[in-house]
Amino acid sequence: MEQKTAIVIFQPSGRRGHVPLGTTLVEASRLLGVDIEAPCGEHHVCGKCKVRVEDGIFEKYAIHSSPDHAGPIEPAEEEILTVEEKLEGRRLGCTATVQGDLLVYVPESSRAGKQVVSKAAREIDIDLNPGVKQYSVKVEEPTLEDGIADLERIKLALESKYGLSSLTIDIYALRS
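Now predict its structure.
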């Protein structure tokens, strides 16, 4: 016995084909090579597979598409879709089933991105120049005779050991 089918067209990809009646829109998209997000495994909980079923006669495709051709709204859709989304013809691709010819728009938020496989990692020489560096110096204990402040003593040690000059210090760091 021959299985009954309907024409399903996915936009914006333009993919189309005959799909068995009762097939979910996510399953239909897979059959036709259209990737719709379904990270929950089609358990009707995430709402990532939202699509819009177009309503009207589309002479270009020789079909009449209607929200009624996607089956009745299921309880899972009642929980996830807003009133506005239902009025716009939005459905969950994992619950809506093909009951007649359909023109389905897949919004960008519901399109599954293609997996990108990176090439093998390779070594790259990168010159690191961090904004903050740590230096260690030993300074002489202050005496009454030399009269040099602790900050000046540190600056002199950094200049003689590392060649650092024209150094400044944040006033809050100096106070601590």
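The mean pLDDT is 88.
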